[in-house]
């Protein structure tokens, strides 16, 4: 019997993940059953379980594709030359989140994953690891701002990294539930905060 190619295996894996993502967005992660995923993918239970041992593995795989892309985008902005000022940085990340949060947008799943992480140890461990990774990227970016003299002297880089990370979930929740916030609001808000908190500081 001929061996199945790596390309075929990857296509099948992607097929399952796409089906699961569609079900998660349509029904919610908690309400989606493995039977729903079998039906959506058009594959048998045996075929799906060949690639994923459990629903949790599928959740993690789907989330990984979204988080990895978003983290890569943030990291690229955080390390680019010339260094982006803070207000422009958050606006660009906001635009990226908007592009991923449409009717079928994958980041719509993020709040559901956060909720599951509160009581599911496996998902909780995965979510925490990813939060730490993205937050670390924000902190490194804050360090570049400080080194470039774009933050007031003595600014706490780690604390700023935590605050910058926290903007993104807040922006996403407002975008999904209220739909009255835009990336430009992030930029104006950051700009106003900097001016009001340090009126005598000139970068």
Automatic annotation (TrEMBL):
Domain of life, source organism: Bacteria
SUPFAM superfamilies per UniProt: Homeodomain-like (SSF46689), Tetracyclin repressor-like, C-terminal domain (SSF48498)
Keyword tags: DNA-binding, Repressor, Transcription, Transcription regulation
InterPro entries registered for this protein in UniProt: BetI_C, DNA-bd_HTH_TetR-type_CS, Homeodomain-like_sf, HTH-type_TetR-like_transc_reg, HTH_TetR, Tet_transcr_reg_TetR-rel_C_sf
DNA-binding region(s), chain positions: 33-52
Organism: Actinomadura yumaensis
UniProt domain HTH tetR-type: residue ranges: 10-70
Transmembrane segments: none
Gene3D superfamilies noted in UniProt: Tetracycline Repressor, domain 2
Protein name: TetR/AcrR family transcriptional regulator
Pfam families: TetR_C_6 (PF13977), TetR_N (PF00440)
């Amino acid at each position: 019997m001929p061996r199945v190619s790596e390309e075929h295996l990857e296509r099948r894996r992607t097929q399952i993940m796409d089906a699961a993502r569609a079900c998660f967005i349509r029904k919610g992660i908690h309400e989606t059953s493995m039977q729903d995923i079998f039906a959506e993918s058009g594959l048998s239970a045996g075929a799906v379980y060949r690639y994923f041992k459990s629903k949790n593995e599928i959740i993690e795989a789907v989330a990984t594709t979204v988080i990895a892309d978003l983290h890569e985008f943030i990291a690229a902005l955080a390390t680019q030359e010339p260094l982006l000022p803070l207000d422009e940085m958050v606006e660009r990340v906001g635009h990226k989140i908007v592009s991923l949060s449409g009717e079928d947008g994958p980041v719509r799943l993020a709040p559901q994953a956060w909720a599951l992480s509160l009581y599911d140890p496996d998902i909780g461990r995965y979510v925490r690891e990813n939060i730490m990774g993205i937050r670390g990227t924000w902190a490194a970016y804050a360090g570049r701002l400080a080194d470039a003299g774009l933050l007031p002297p003595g600014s706490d880089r780690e604390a700023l990294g935590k605050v910058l990370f926290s903007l993104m979930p807040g922006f996403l929740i407002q975008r999904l539930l209220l739909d009255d916030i835009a990336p430009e609001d992030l930029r104006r808000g950051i700009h106003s905060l900097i001016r009001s908190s340090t009126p005598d500081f000139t970068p």
